[in-house]
Amino acid sequence: MARTLDPVAHAVRRDEFLDAAQWLIQTRGYDEMSIQDVLDRVEASRGAFYHYFDSKAALLEALIERLTASGTATILPVVDDPTLGALEKFSRVFDGIARWKAERKELMLALLQVWYSDENALVRDKLWQQMLTVLTPVVAAIIEQGRGEGVFTAPSGPDTAQVILTLLYGAGETAGRLFFARHAREISVADIRARLVAYSAAVERVLGVPPASLQIVDDATLHEWFD
After folding, report:
1. CB-based contacts of 76: which residues, under 8 Å, 6+ apart?
2. Helices (H) and strands (E) in the chain, counts
3. What is the DSSP letter of 3?
4. CA separation (Å) from 77 to 92, 171, 184, 202?
5. How far is it, in rounded angstroms, from Cα 207 to Cα 58?
6. Do 94 and 100 touch, CB atoms closer than 8 A?
7. Fewest Cβ atoms nearer than 10 Å: which of 2, 110, 140, 192?
């Protein structure tokens, strides 16, 4: 007789592996973490690990998926708040994402070390496609609200939402690379600000709002990560 899978127990056990990986990546780094390290921390067999993940890379992918879902969940109450205007929603979404990352700064820095490696290109692309699927209707709804309020002139629909998400994803990718350039003292904070302001300006033009209506990264966030 086939064993019946308990989905709750399965999810809890899988999260234990992810919790262990998150702690190890934050404290040791991804490259220094081995599957055996994860097994030792969870007190599990190698067979148990492969029941949930095909490889160390799959474990990393699952961890980033969980973090992405967690970060997205923090901004949804803002998006669903009927008392906020569309422009305010965009501003609060940017602020919320920045705060969420700052609260996990050590982990974010540890993940940056592996995020841009060529071997993780497929992971980045897969997660980007997942983000588009989840966030496109969310951003499209804000755009439609803004059009109704008369503050946005951008066309409604998923195409415009995906253009904005592509700009925001590009801003995040650029910010990560600028972090390493700043760490190597190859660029000033002023130059970093100018690069990121350009993304804000591009989003403003797509939405059809006046200049300086939106700020993807404020000065406090700049100094938090780049000073």
Report:
1. 138
2. 10, 0
3. P
4. 10, 23, 38, 26
5. 37
6. no
7. 2
Residue with tokens 């205007």: 85
Structure-block tokens of residue 65? 């998926």
Residue 125 token pair: 């692309």
Question: Which of 226, 218, 227, 223 has the alpha carbon at shortest distance from 97?
Answer: 218
* Mean pLDDT calculated for residue range 216-221: 87
Residue 128, pLDDT > 90, answer: no
- Look-up of token digits 């974010």: 108
Of residues 4 and 218, more confidently modeled:
218
pLDDT of residue 2: 45
Specify the DSSP class assigned to residue 120.
Answer: G
Q: How confident is the model over 77-112, as pLDDT tens digits?
A: 998 999 999 999 999 988 888 899 999 999 999 988
Q: Give the pLDDT band of residue 4 (cuts 50, 70, 90).
A: low
Q: Which residue has the tokens 């404290």?
A: 27
Alpha carbon distances (Å) from 110 to 26, 45, 115, 131, 190: 6, 26, 9, 21, 25
Residue 148 and residue 130: Cα distance in Å, rounded? 28
Give the Cα separation of 36 and 20 in Å (integer): 11
d(CA 182, CA 223) in angstroms, rounded, equals 11
Q: What distance in Å separates the CA atoms of residue 69 and residue 93, rounded to the nearest whole number?
A: 14
∠ CA 13-101-137, rounded to 5°: 80
Structure tokens at 10: 């399965």
